[in-house]
Each structure stands twice: as structure tokens, then as C-alpha cells.
Design goal:
heterodimer; A: 483 residues; alpha/beta; Aldehyde Dehydrogenase, Chain A, domain 1; Aldehyde Dehydrogenase, Chain A, domain 2; 2 domains; six-stranded mixed β-sheet; B: 301 residues; TIM Barrel; globular
């Protein structure tokens, strides 16, 4: 355990202002180009996880609402979007991308208020990347034949898309941009704790003049997602979220002709060899597990350190953890913000207890925390074995499980010894070792001497229980076309 | 002390992309209100006020020594700078001009800035400055020898200079702008620290690029590794190219997050700069009065 942080030179609060944002007190559903009230649905509050204060009322969509949304999407597909020229599709998507850029500051603030992530991340990563995805796929809209040479790519029809709460606007962009670029129409459900930026995106879509019904957004809990999945007139399901729900979706659509892509959980290995640039590797470990409070499906939650540098890496890692600022997500100097929900915090705390009871050694940043809100300072376990639950199950929080290894063969075996296979990281100064490792890791993304880097041109997706299908890049188009 | 030949393999690799990314992250820190004032005053107290020109004259050096003690007399309670940095032939004059102000006199030596002469002449250069009363010696390493792979020569030379310094503290200038890679910067830092340098310093100020945040970070990490291994502190002096307060504050953040609070002191951290002080003063006056004043209200010496 470290001492409580006391500092000779302590930075004063530097909060981003929120007086420039515009939010309604209550939101309806976005169906056929209009915000409409639900037919019989209740409202629930979306709260700021850093203060627990309610921000706005969100609608719990009913089966009737979902049916209306799917019908609107179907009609828009048949009458308008499938007949819109590819160049014009691109034009609308470029407009959406530009409007996201113009409203970047407002969107970043709302993302942070609603989700608890540090403003530094929503400002520098989430929102710019969301815009970049729209820009990227806007460019593909009229070039699809080049993506699939000697084929004639055709849209699938209506896509039902269900997204998680960890990167709300970014995940909406990952889903909507390729779908509509390929000529599909969309019914999207954001996560219940983070609906606001998806609803702000609907305002942007209105402003961009996208034909009504091409994008529809229905809000609410899991039942709403199930209604989309079960709707007979949906052609494709795209889901990002937990493996348990993903399995349920596959069961539900079995024996239908719905196509499906799933991006599920992960338990990524981040592997540090003794010849790695250690200081940069430590930074990569930090980015790998504490980025977005560890609410990242590709988080580097299993750290493997070669035994000969274990002491050095751990000393530096703890030193770096002690410099992280945890607290008000709106403060520009905050590195680790609020846990997204009470439920998630409970899950994380449960796993911390499990880790302790399994006998692993625990280290956590000691710092003052705000009185209200959901908080978990960055922490790690050492002395972990492959057979520990904290090394096997996805925690989805700022909790790192550290193991050591001796040889390349050993670490490959251990890194692949997981039901998941979304991502991995390898740190070594030796190029040949990198290529050997990347060829043998059973993971969709392998980062070399970096971690958690995202780009619209690069495909992302999993092996095994981390799902199937790819998002991003040329590969991401394949999920939304018949060829 | 490790054998100098071991340097050929003992320095850890540095990943360029990672270093640049980390350095950028310090630049997103936002320093406000009280912490800004505290930081600005700290910067002033860490400055090595420098004049290293062929056209330096006794008059110029005297003016600079006066400025060092009276940064901006209309603002009460300001610290003085840490040191004056001059060529060896002005050391005695600077010592006299600074009197009992406790401001140190640093002298460049060892055939500054190129370092291209014999070891004997370099040592004489150092001894002369020390004899004249220099509290600190800023030497340059032999970059040519370094590039030729003669790390043992570079090491021995630094050790000899350290010996000639006697009680004066030695700053070892790596001239990072001539080293080419971060790996080389790291290796040169390790050599300088192992050979007994009290400070490692980025640049002479005569070559561009001079100090940058990434290059300083690589050097701070070398200092940290040495500290973790031995418990001994080594000082750091970025020099050249740091001319505004905002950037200097970001350097302080970098020092604090990389090395810790103990280095936030002019015994362990310096800025080699000629024009930084006035921008910091301008910011302090702005914090006090709420308005920026024209550069003409701050003396240029």
C-alpha cells in the first residue's frame, strides 16, 4: 500500500465548463426523423455517475415503439435509401461527420456528464474518433465495388444495432456509419445508462437532412434490445456488449435468416518481455487497463511480465499509478473518472474481494474520493495464477491481474489460454519476436509496443467468445452487404 | 561504478513513439490559479540566466547579474534566479557582481560548445573557471567520440572533468540535437550519470533542436532509473528553446510526475534560458493584476 498522496505542488481544480451545452429535461424516441413520445412507455432518469444527480428523463420504449421504428426503417429502406445514389449517401454521412466536429465540445461534455469518463478522453479520443468513423465510411459509400472486386455488393436491409455504455457516441458511430454507407437503414438502441449522446446524434442527423427513417433510435433497458432482436422484419443484428447477452442473441436468432455480428467481452494479455522499452511499456500497461476506468472490452487486464524484469516493472508501475488523478471527470487533469453505474461498481468490488480471497496481493492507489458518485481507484493484483477467477473472467473495471512468465512458449500458451480472444499487447524491442508473437496470438487485434490504439481504417473484432465479424476498415463493410 | 565498456549493452531501449506520446500527455495538464502562481515562482527560482555569446562584454555580464538579483522590483517578494551562466573569462566578474546574493555562478567549459580539443586543454579550461570561483561547471561531451562508439573515452573524460571540478557541481551537456536518437540520448545520459555528473543537461543552445519535452523525458527516466538503483539523486537541466511560462510549467509537471516532488527544487532542476524569465514575470503580474502588460514594462538585459 502506498502512502496517501501528499504533494508539494498540487494542481488546483481545472473544470471544463458545461454552460454551453443544451439538453432537454426529457427525451422521447427518434423514429422516422422525429422525436416522438412512446406509446405507453415509462420514463427513467439517466444520472451523472460522478454525482448521482439526475440529468434527464429517458424513455423506456415498448414493443409497439420498436415495431414502429422497424417499420419506419423498412419504409425508408424501400422508398428512399436503397434508391439514393451512393454519392448522395456519402454526402449525408460527410455532413454528419462535420457536424460532430462542429459540436465536439458539447458532445464531449455530455459524454462525460452522462458516462463518468474523464473529459480528457471524451474530448481527445471518443468524439474525434466518432467523427473520423463517419468521415471514413462516408468515403466508402460510392466506392463499394472497389472493396469487393468482381462482386456486386448489395445492402442487407434493416439493421438492428445494440451498443454498450463504455463508448456511447463512438459505438453509435462504429455501428451507424458503415451500415448507412452500405445502403442499409438502422434501428439503434443505446445503453440505458448512456443514451444522451446517441439522442444528440439524432439532432445532428436531423440537421444533416438525412432522409427520415434511415436512422432510428429507441432507448431503454435490455427488453428493448430483445424486441429488436426478435423483430421478424430486421435483417441484421449488430451487437456490442457482454458475452452472456451475445450468446442469448445468437440463440434468439437461430433458425432465422438474420445475419449477425457480435463484439463481446475480452480478457486481453499484455505481454512485457525483458528486452522491452520498460518505461514506455509501463505507460502502455497504464493505458491498457486504466483507460476509461477499465470499461474497455479490449482492456489489457492480464499483464504478463518476464520474471527477470518483474521487480523493475512493478516498482515503476506502482510509481506511475500513484501519479494518476482520480476524481471529477469534468476536471481537465483527471486521469481516471467515475465508474459508469452503481451496478458496475458492485461487480468490480465483488471481483476485488474474490481476488483477495484467492490469496493474490493487492495494491491500490490511495487518494481522496468525492463523497457521492461511484469510484474505484486503479488497482492491481500480483501473485496471480491462470486458475484464479480474476485472471479468467472479465471484470470491466480498473483492476489488473499480473502474472510472470519465463519463456516465449510459456507466455503464448498462457495468453491464449482463455475463452476470449479480442486483443493483446506485446512489448519488446526485437522485431522478429514481435512478428512471432503476433502470428501466434489468437486475438483479433495485437498491439505492438503500444496499446488501445483505434483508427477507423483498422478492423476490430474477436476470436472465440469475444465474438465474430469485424468493425472498422474495409472489413467493416462486409458486415453490412450481401455479396 | 560500472566499467565504461559495459555501456555498449546496458542502456535500456527507448521507444520513440511512446516517449513522444507520453510527453504530449503532460501538455494536456491544466495549471490554474494558486498552483499556477506557485509554479511560476518555482520557475523563476530555477532559471540559469544565460549569456553565451562571442560578443559578451563585462558590461553585458554586469547587467545580467543585476537582473538576476532584481527580476522585477515593482513586484514584491519574487525569488531570484538560481544562477548566472557565462563563459569562463567572466566568472570572476560575475562572482563580484553577485556578491553575497547566494546566486550561483555557472561557467561553461571544455571548449564549449563543440568540445573539440585535447583533454588537457579542456581540463585547464575547467580549472581556470573553478579557480575564478565558478560554483558550477557546464561541460560538453565529445559527441564525435560518442558517435564513433568510443563510450569509454566519453566516460573517462567526464570522470576527469568531474575530478578537476573539485567542490563545484558538474553539469554534463549531452547536446541531444547532435545525438540523433532517443536510444543515444539514453546511453549518453547513463554514461554521464555513471561518470559522476551532478546534473545532466540537454543542450548548448547553439544547435537546433535544443531542449524538447520528449528528450528531457528520456533523460529524466535515466535519472529515475539511477535513483531506483542507488538512491542517489541527479539533477536535470533542459536548456535552449524554453522561452515561455506555459511550456516551463509543463516541464515542471513532467518532472513531478516522473521523478517526484523532491526534484522540484533548484538544487535538482534548472532551466537554461535567456528570455524565459520575462515571460514568467509577465504571467505573474497578470495573475496579480488581471491584465497583461506590454513587454516594455519588463527589463531586457
Amino acid at each position: 500500500m502506498s502512502k496517501m498522496k501528499t504533494s508539494l505542488w498540487k494542481l488546483d481544480p481545472a473544470p471544463e465548463s458545461s454552460d454551453h451545452i443544451s439538453l432537454e429535461s426529457s427525451y422521447g424516441l427518434f423514429i422516422d426523423g422525429e422525436f416522438v413520445e412512446s406509446e405507453g412507455g415509462d420514463k427513467f432518469a439517466t444520472i451523472n455517475p460522478a454525482t448521482e444527480a439526475p440529468i434527464a428523463a429517458i424513455t423506456e420504449a415498448t414493443d409497439t415503439d420498436v415495431d414502429k421504428a422497424v417499420k419506419a426503417a423498412r419504409l425508408a429502406y424501400q422508398k428512399v435509401w436503397s434508391k439514393t445514389s451512393p454519392t448522395d449517401r456519402g454526402k449525408y454521412i460527410f455532413r454528419i461527420a462535420r457536424l460532430i466536429q462542429e459540436k465536439a465540445r458539447e458532445l464531449a461534455v455530455i459524454e462525460t456528464l452522462d458516462g463518468g469518463k474523464p473529459i480528457r478522453e471524451s474530448r481527445d479520443i471518443d468524439i474525434p474518433l466518432a467523427a473520423a468513423h463517419f468521415f471514413y465510411y462516408a468515403g466508402w459509400a460510392d466506392k463499394l465495388p472497389y472493396a469487393f472486386p468482381n462482386r456486386t455488393p448489395k445492402p442487407l436491409g434493416v439493421a438492428g444495432q445494440i451498443i454498450p455504455w463504455n463508448f456511447p457516441l463512438l459505438m453509435a458511430a462504429w455501428k451507424i456509419a458503415p451500415a448507412i454507407a452500405c445502403g442499409n437503414t438502422v434501428v439503434l438502441k443505446p445503453a440505458e445508462t448512456t443514451s444522451l449522446t446517441a439522442l444528440k446524434l439524432c439532432e445532428i442527423i436531423q440537421q444533416a437532412g438525412l432522409p427520415p427513417g434511415v436512422v432510428n433510435v429507441v432507448t431503454g433497458h435490455q427488453k428493448v434490445g430483445a424486441a429488436i432482436v426478435d423483430h421478424p422484419d430486421v435483417n441484421k443484428i449488430a451487437f456490442t456488449g457482454s458475452t452472456a447477452v451475445g450468446k442469448g442473441i445468437q440463440t434468439a436468432i437461430a433458425a432465422t435468416d438474420k445475419s449477425c455480428t457480435l463484439e463481446l467481452g475480452g480478457k486481453a494479455a499484455n505481454i512485457v518481455f525483458d528486452d522491452a522499452p520498460i518505461d514506455q511499456a509501463v505507460e502502455g500497461i497504464i493505458n491498457g487497463i486504466y483507460f476509461n476506468q477499465g470499461h474497455v472490452c479490449c482492456a489489457g487486464s492480464r499483464l504478463f511480465v518476464q520474471e527477470s524484469v518483474f521487480e523493475e516493472v512493478m516498482r515503476k508501475l506502482k510509481h506511475r499509478i500513484d501519479t494518476l488523478n482520480v476524481g471529477d471527470p469534468m476536471d481537465k487533469n483527471t486521469d481516471v473518472g467515475a465508474i459508469n453505474s452503481k451496478k458496475q461498481l458492485q461487480q468490480i468490488n465483488q471481483y476485488i474481494e474474490i481476488g483477495k480471497s484467492e490469496g493474490a496481493d493487492f495494491y491500490q492507489l490511495q487518494c481522496d474520493l468525492p463523497e457521492r458518485g461511484f469510484w474505484c481507484p486503479p488497482c492491481l493484483f500480483t501473485g496471480v495464477a491462470q486458475s484464479n477467477r480474476i485472471a479468467q473472467e472479465e471484470i470491466f473495471g480498473p483492476v489488473l491481474a499480473v502474472q510472470t512468465f519465463r519463456t516465449v512458449a510459456e507466455v503464448i500458451k498462457k495468453a491464449n489460454n482463455t475463452p476470449y480472444g479480442l486483443s493483446a499487447g506485446v512489448w519488446t524491442d526485437k522485431g522478429s519476436k514481435l512478428f512471432n508473437m503476433t502470428a501466434q496470438m489468437r486475438a483479433g487485434v495485437v498491439w505492438a509496443n503500444t496499446y488501445n490504439k483505434f483508427d477507423p481504417t483498422s478492423p476490430f473484432g474477436g476470436y472465440k467468445e469475444s465474438g465474430f465479424g469485424r468493425e472498422g476498415g474495409v472489413h467493416g463493410l462486409a458486415a453490412y452487404v450481401k455479396i | 561504478m560500472p566499467h565504461p565498456q559495459s555501456f555498449t549493452c546496458s542502456s535500456p531501449p527507448v521507444d520513440q513513439v511512446g516517449v513522444i506520446e507520453r510527453a504530449k500527455r503532460f501538455q494536456t495538464r491544466s495549471v490554474k490559479t494558486q498552483s499556477k502562481m506557485q509554479g511560476l515562482r518555482m520557475i523563476l527560482s530555477m532559471i540559469d540566466l544565460t549569456t553565451l555569446e562571442g560578443m559578451d562584454t563585462p558590461g553585458k555580464v554586469k547587467q545580467l547579474c543585476f537582473k538576476a538579483q532584481h527580476l522585477h522590483d515593482s513586484t514584491a517578494g519574487l525569488p531570484t534566479v538560481a544562477a548566472i551562466c557565462v563563459y569562463p573569462n567572466f566568472v570572476a566578474l560575475a562572482k563580484r557582481a553577485l556578491g553575497d546574493s547566494k546566486i550561483k555562478v555557472a561557467s561553461v567549459a571544455t571548449a564549449f560548445p563543440s568540445g573539440n580539443t585535447s583533454l588537457e586543454i579542456k581540463l585547464d579550461d575547467v580549472r581556470m573557471a573553478v579557480d575564478q570561483g565558478a560554483d558550477e561547471i557546464d561541460m560538453v561531451i565529445s559527441r564525435g567520440k560518442f558517435h564513433a562508439g568510443e563510450f569509454g573515452y566519453v566516460y573517462d573524460e567526464i570522470a576527469e572533468v568531474k575530478n578537476a571540478c573539485g567542490p563545484s557541481r558538474l553539469k554534463v551537456i549531452l547536446e541531444t540535437g547532435e545525438l540523433g536518437t532517443f536510444d543515444n540520448v539514453r546511453k549518453a545520459s547513463d554514461i554521464a550519470i555513471a561518470a559522476g555528473g551532478d546534473f545532466i543537461k540537454t543542450s548548448t543552445g547553439k544547435i537546433k533542436p535544443a531542449a524538447t519535452m520528449p528528450v528531457t523525458l528520456v533523460m529524466l527516466e535515466a535519472i529515475r532509473d539511477h535513483y531506483f538503483k542507488t538512491g542517489e539523486m541527479v539533477g536535470m537541466k533542459p536548456a535552449g528553446g524554453i522561452s515561455n511560462a506555459k511550456l516551463a510549467l509543463q516541464y515542471l509537471i513532467m518532472v513531478q510526475e516522473t521523478l517526484g516532488d523532491s526534484w522540484l527544487d533548484n538544487h535538482w532542476f534548472r532551466f537554461g534560458a535567456s528570455s524565459l524569465a520575462n515571460d514568467v514575470l509577465m504571467q505573474i503580474v497578470k495573475q496579480n493584476t488581471g491584465a497583461y502588460q506590454s513587454a516594455d514594462y519588463f527589463s531586457i538585459d
